[in-house]
Amino acid sequence: MVQDLVIAIVAAASVGSLYLAAAAKVVKQYERGVVLRLGRLRDDVRGPGFTMVIPGIERLRKVNMQIVTMPVPAQDGITRDNVTVRVDAVIYFKVVDAASAVIQVEDYRFAVSQMAQTSLRSIIGKSDLDDLLSNREKLNQGLELMIDSPAVGWGVQIDRVEIKDVSLPETMKRSMARQAEADRERRARVINADAELQASKKLAEAAGEMSAQPAALQLRLLQTVVAVAAEKNSTLVLPFPVELLRFLERAQQPGQQQQQAPGQQPQLAPGQQQLAPAQQPAPPPQSAAAKPQRQPQRHPQAPRPAPPQRPAQAQRPAQPRSPQPSAAAPAPMPAPPPPAAVPARPSHPKPLAKH
Fold first, then answer.
1. Which of 72, 86, 160, 336 is the most exposed place for a label (fewest CB within 10 A)?
2. C-alpha 121: how far from chain center
3. What backbone phi and psi angles, to 5 degrees, belong to 84?
């Protein structure tokens, strides 16, 4: 009989231990327990720690209250400016109402993932390419509002939404690279032009200072030679001063002024005087052969005229005596006068025949 009592006690202890094992539940700190009694939601949500449920009658469902990081799969779309892009994002959310997360939606994780994908496609179609690349904060806020609106009824709170990467076609990447290169080149040219302007101003100031002291240019030249020679080069480059070229150019100008083209009046020395117009040699007389005179018609009964006298031979005009050149500046040789025309010998008129 004692043996039967022991067996009964052991059996009761076993059943009690099995009941405790089935009824005892432990809820972790980051979890909340939702109890369903015969399929009906209990108002009290079990907090973290040890709790008991009625086996077979109550069912405890644990809900994680931590922030969940969920990647959104990459979505292909066309922007508002007709550019095909591929955008992926990441979403951060957490459950704030465990009972609603269990009762209102079958799987809140899958629901949030699908809502994030559809909202991301909508944002791509409403935005330009420049906004996707440079103005992501505004797009992130708009995407967060689009996902958070239906998620509130599921007991889920959207903490943050971030667009991770925007994939562009290769042709668009090359176009953007050429645009960026052109912009960089434009800024480089502007910077170089500004630097040259500032350098020219400084050089102009330095030239003004050196013009006041001509020896400063020679000292600067010597400093340049010393700087070049300090490198121990086998070839020494010596700058040729421009002022020397200007000096040689000024020295050649008086010699060029003395050379005159033929036919021009010679330049007089400082101590000479130009002859007056009355003292100029008279031009040679024009010959009678140059202008033939018209013989008048004679009447048949008119007496025979006497033969014209032979004109004297025109004498060559005396050459004007050129003034003696001074020792200061030699006077050029005057051009020889044109030769005097020799008058043609007049022919005797033939006598008219008498009828």
1. 336
2. 37
3. -80, 125
Could you give the CA distance from residue 309 to residue 107 in angstroms, rounded to a whole number? 151
Gap between the Cα atoms of 287 and 102, Å rounded: 142
Q: Is the dihedral of CA 73, 74, 76, 81 positive or negative?
A: positive
> Is pLDDT of 44 > 60?
yes
pTM of the model: 0.50
Which element (helix H / strand E) includes 180? helix 170-212
Non-local CB neighbours of 60 within 8 Å, separated by 6+ positions: 25, 27, 33, 34, 35, 46, 51, 53
Are the C-beta atoms of 101 and 64 separated by less than 8 Å? no
Q: Is the pLDDT of residue 93 over 60?
A: yes
Q: Which DSSP symbol is given to 152?
A: G
Helix (H) or strand (E) segment spanning residue 165: strand 156-167
Tell me how far apart the alpha carbons of residues 45 and 16 are, in angstroms, rounded to a whole number.
26
| Beta carbons of 129 and 81 less than 8 angstroms apart | yes
Helix (H, G, I), strand (E, B) or coil at 74: strand
Closest CA relative to residue 127, chosen from 171, 75, 176: 75
